[in-house]
Amino acid sequence: xxxxxxxxxxxxxxxxxxxxxxxxxxxxxxxxxxxxxxxxxxxxxxxxxxxxxxxxxxxxxxxxxxxxxxxxxxxxxxxxxxxxxxxxxxxxxxxxxxxxxxxxxxxxxxxxxxxxxxxxxxxxxxxxxxxxxxxxxxxxxxxxxxxxxxxxxxxxxxxxxxxxxxxxxxxxxxxxxxxxxxxxxxxxxxxxxxxxxxxxxxxxxxxxxxxxxxxxxxxxxxxxxxxxxxxxxxxxxxxxxxxxxxxxxxxxxxxxxxxxxxxxxxxxxxxxxxxxxxxxxxxxxxxxxxxxxxxxxxxxxxxxxxxxxxxxxxxxxxxxxxxxxxxxxxxxxxxxxxxxxxxxxxxxxxxxxxxxxxxxxxxxxxxxxxxxxxxxx
Length: 377
What we know:
The chain has 377 residues and is of the alpha/beta class.
């Protein structure tokens, strides 16, 4: 049995290395490393895949969030509502721009932001909502968009963990995660479902004016060379990463299917075990399984992790603390009691290896090891 990894980028690369090599060689021979045809082609191909009018690439997913907030002219003191249970970049950008972060609790089944909590925290200063499509499936976008329309709010979707996931509205309309709100953002960090071999990010919108503004902001605030309309930033996806992503985009649906098959294996192995819960599926969203995250019941998580590590099975905890509990954000003056579900989940979630290269032998070994530990308790 080959080594089990949380993310097996090497095995994935070995299957496409000839195509990757040709793509890299083409960029080097063209000597167009910044912007250029590879970046433009990737933006067009990703826009077609996403079903949106505009894709604006940038340096990373965190920059994508920052650019989205800047393009919407959010001002210091404006309140932005987001989840307490996610990676820090969403909260980080709100804080860095001088906006007021408003954190709310999550749903216990999908781990996604709770729309009921969103509405409870809206004030006259609220300007935007940033839902995070956590672990690979969409937040309740129908309800979130209804709330946004009711109160005149922007919606910035953080799609870093859910590229390719689809959301179905009651009228049968289907949209991909990141194309529903005012602006969508994503990351191409190597471990993402669509990842490059360095850093990268992108922004999605169907609004022509917003797209123009985003392109300008990402290029030092200029729409014409050496003419600066706004204070911008320098944030771009280089041509080498774009060429890599063009290759991998062609395989994204295959990668997603492989992840779903691995998740189905886990589901079948664990569905009758009361000591843990398998990931819940939202009824109105597909799941692309950026992570396969179980919830433990009465099981010592660290002891389980140690037992699995002894068998050379890696695990991760996404996330061991809700965002409000980190020292950098103590100034927000939140208390644990305001986020009972996020606090509870941070103590009980555990992510198992999940990627497109898992095989049946590895999956059998992982699931057997988990069940063996539970039986010994």
